[in-house]
From TrEMBL:
Residues 158-281 form the GGDEF domain. Gene3D superfamilies: 3.30.70.270. The chain crosses the membrane at residues 7-27. It comes from Fusibacter ferrireducens. Coiled coil: none annotated. Keywords: Membrane, Transmembrane, Transmembrane helix. This is Diguanylate cyclase. InterPro entries: GGDEF_dom (IPR000160), Nucleotide_cyclase (IPR029787), Rev_trsase/Diguanyl_cyclase (IPR043128).
Amino acid sequence: MKSHLKKIIYSILILVILLFTLFFITLLMQKNFFFYDYALYGALLVVLALTLSLGLIPGLLICAIVIFGYGSVVFFQMITGTSQIWTLNYLWFIAYPLTTFFAGQLSENVRMANEQCTKCDKMTDRIVTIDEITGFGNGREFLRDLDGEMARAKRHKIPLTIGVLEIQYFEELITIYGRDNTKKIYKVIAEALNRATRVEDLRFRIDEDMLGLILPHTTIENAQVVKMRLKENLSKLEIEDESSLGRYNIELKVGLLAYRDDILNPMEFKALAVKELEYDV
């Protein structure tokens, strides 16, 4: 990543030096700018922008078209005897390919740096398993731990129940209270969930508006007790903020499901638990 950044910086510096060098040479060789000077500078900037956007090969093709057009004009001036400063004519023929080449290098280095950043982001997503707001595991961790608990429950014939908790009207909460206060709500819900569950119970944030629970050694009847305890705690939920809305009435749906041998994998187990949300009225 650092090598790509260095190459990007060097390419930018070279491009700036080229443009300023061309500008000062033009000033030194003639007192006034003519129309064709502005046109050539404008065309050079267009070629530069297109090369940065499209890449080196398309940029060189566009550059070749511009040089061919300009060369045709110079050739016509030579034939008619109206050609102006020769050195500047040759200077443009050098400036266009050089600028296009270094712009293409810059475009390629930026592309490679973006690809590397994307790879780093994907690696980070794989590594990070903790939700920063609640401190719970994330959705990936939920499925992984659930897979292990299912295997353990099946092997040792012990009860296992999972819970899916959905915050109702979550988008409306964000609209009314803003994301910062909604994060506060999530933190308080997380604290209430910690109080309602045991140390050995596993807690997760599996979606933006959804929490997950894995309750080992727990029957569906015992899980119902946890559900009632949690809803009771949330009914007293109060959060202080800078607005006049200091009390939040959070509606939480809870779907509970006990493990059965016919449930084949964690994804199916989770999906069946999510269906149970429909019956929590």
